[in-house]
Structure formats: C-alpha cells, structure tokens
Amino acid sequence: MDNDKIINFAIKYGFLILLVGLVIFFSVASRGFASPRSAVFILQSVSITGILALGVTCTLVVDGFDLSIGAVATSSLMLSAYSMVILEQSAFVAVVLCLAMGAFVGLINGLLIVKFKVPDLLATLGMMFLLIGLQRIPTQGNSIATGMSLTDGTTAQGVFSPAFLWIGRHRFDLVLERLLPVPVLIFIAIAVGIWIFLALTRHGRLMYAIGSNERAAALVGTPVKKYKVIAYMISGVMASVGGILLAARLGRGDIASGNNLLLDSVAAALIGYAVLGAARPNAFGTAIGALFVGILLQGMTMLNAPYYTQDFVKGAVLVVALVFTFYLDARSSSGGKT
C-alpha cells in the first residue's frame, strides 16, 4: 500500500519536482539565472512555442497530430511581412490574412483526414512540405525586409506598421521596470482560453471522448468529423498567431526563423502528459511543458553548453518524462504487477 502511495505521488508530482529542481540547479550553477530579467526572457522565449503547442494539444485531444504547425507559423510570418512590406497593407489586414490562412490550412488538414481518410501524420506532413515550398516562391527564397530589392529591380516601399511591431515588442510597466512583454500576456490568455474550452465546456468533453473512443462517441451522436476539423483549424490558427508574434518581434520576414518551432512545440505538448500525472493531452500540462523547455534551454545557454547538445537533452527529457508517466501509471493500474 505504501508502495502504491509512493508511485501515485511520483506520477502526480514527479515532473513538477523535477522542474523546481532544475530551476534550483541553474540558479546555483549560473549567476543571473534567477534574476527577473532572465525570468522574463524565458517567458518571452516560450510564449510562441507555447501557443503552437496549445494548438497541437487540441489535435492530440481528438487522437490526431499536426506536423504542419511550424510551416504554418513560418508562412504566417512571411505572409505578414509580404503584405506590409511588398503590398503596403495595414497591420490589421496583415493579421486578418494570417489568421485566415491558418484557419484555411487547418480546414484542409481536417478535410484530408476525415473526408479522404489520409492518416493525420501523412496529411500534415504533406501540408508542411507544401507550405515550406509555397512561402519561398514569391521572394525566390529570400527573407523580407524593409527597403529590400525586388525581383523586378525596384525597391520595396512598404514598412512594418508600428502597431504591428507593438504586438511583439511592447512591454508593460511593472513595479520596477518595463518587463512584461505583450506575447507573454497573449500566451497566458490563450492558455487559459484553451484550458477552459477543453476542461470546462461540453465541446471540450466531447473532443476528449472522441480521442478516447471515436467509435463510441459516434454511436452516441457526437459529430466526430466536425470536431476533428475544428481541432485542426484551432491548431492552424494558433500556429498563425505564433508566426504573427515572431514577425512582430523580429521586424522582418526571416525565412529560417521558425526552424525549431515544430520540435519545441511538440516536445512541450507531449511533456504535458507528465504534468500532474495527467497521462493525456491538456492545456495546463502543455503550458508547463513549454515553460520547462524554456528553462532548460535558457539554463544550458547560460552554462555555455554547446548548441548542438540542446536537441539531445530535450529529446532525452521527453522520453524519460513519457516513459516515467505511462510506465508508472500502467504499473499502478495493474496493482504493482510488472
């Protein structure tokens, strides 16, 4: 009985204890890690990753998966830059175009999966490659910046709107100094919204039912196909929001800036399974997973760890967290039998 209590405690709180231990270790090993500036930098760095991860979480809830989020985010970044710098449109038009693009990509992904029965991994992988190629065509593979030379020999006359840059760069006043970036507030608001939607509404419960047993959910009248399409549309919109924030922070359409978004977002969403022993996709766990990835990368950077070790460490943490969660959960459910 005592053994079961220990296992249950480890399942529920083990990952949070690991997170606190990691913060303590980096605080001791690296001077300045525990400073407010470092904390804000971590939050800002995980805000975009976390938003994308929350979109992935919605697809995981319905037993799906979206590999196109990184490409959607980069396409959103390039589209916002193209619309303002090349087409000379306003910030409002740029944001609307990006959100519409994300929703449309999610709709296509959903229809490929539910109507044409294409496996989710293959459908979203194909969409990822399509978007990677498509976003490079208008500029022949070049990044977009104010005053850039166009293919017809002229110079781009458009600029990034100050209102657009405000989204990615403005920091609100705190007690001591301007520390709280807008992207962090947007991330928190989206995380709370997704958590409320999935955990507290009928629609969220139906999506979890679909993920647990799609056939049983369909037999009781749940519109399975509709909810699956909605999940992928949410994922597409979240990815486009991430791309908008990245473009607003950079002030240019950098073609290579979203290279790590997919891996970091997927890692955050999957690590969320281990938070509080949920053993299922959930918004709170995803947000904590994004924070964990940010703390890990910031700490390794401040310790001058080689950049090429970061993906290895992220992968190792992800594998350990998932094995720990699912193995102990299965062992506990079977009464301690191995």
From TrEMBL:
<feature type="transmembrane region" description="Helical">
    <location>
        <begin position="260"/>
        <end position="278"/>
    </location>
</feature>
<feature type="transmembrane region" description="Helical">
    <location>
        <begin position="9"/>
        <end position="29"/>
    </location>
</feature>
<keyword id="KW-0997">Cell inner membrane</keyword>
<dbReference type="GO" id="GO:0022857">
    <property type="term" value="F:transmembrane transporter activity"/>
</dbReference>
<dbReference type="InterPro" id="IPR001851">
    <property type="entry name" value="ABC_transp_permease"/>
</dbReference>
<feature type="transmembrane region" description="Helical">
    <location>
        <begin position="229"/>
        <end position="248"/>
    </location>
</feature>
<dbReference type="GO" id="GO:0005886">
    <property type="term" value="C:plasma membrane"/>
</dbReference>
<protein>
    <submittedName>
        <fullName>Sugar ABC transporter permease</fullName>
    </submittedName>
</protein>
<keyword id="KW-1133">Transmembrane helix</keyword>
<keyword id="KW-0472">Membrane</keyword>
<keyword id="KW-0812">Transmembrane</keyword>
<dbReference type="Pfam" id="PF02653">
    <property type="entry name" value="BPD_transp_2"/>
</dbReference>
<feature type="transmembrane region" description="Helical">
    <location>
        <begin position="41"/>
        <end position="62"/>
    </location>
</feature>
<feature type="transmembrane region" description="Helical">
    <location>
        <begin position="179"/>
        <end position="198"/>
    </location>
</feature>
<feature type="transmembrane region" description="Helical">
    <location>
        <begin position="312"/>
        <end position="328"/>
    </location>
</feature>
<feature type="transmembrane region" description="Helical">
    <location>
        <begin position="69"/>
        <end position="87"/>
    </location>
</feature>
<keyword id="KW-1003">Cell membrane</keyword>
<feature type="transmembrane region" description="Helical">
    <location>
        <begin position="93"/>
        <end position="114"/>
    </location>
</feature>
<feature type="transmembrane region" description="Helical">
    <location>
        <begin position="284"/>
        <end position="305"/>
    </location>
</feature>
<keyword id="KW-0813">Transport</keyword>
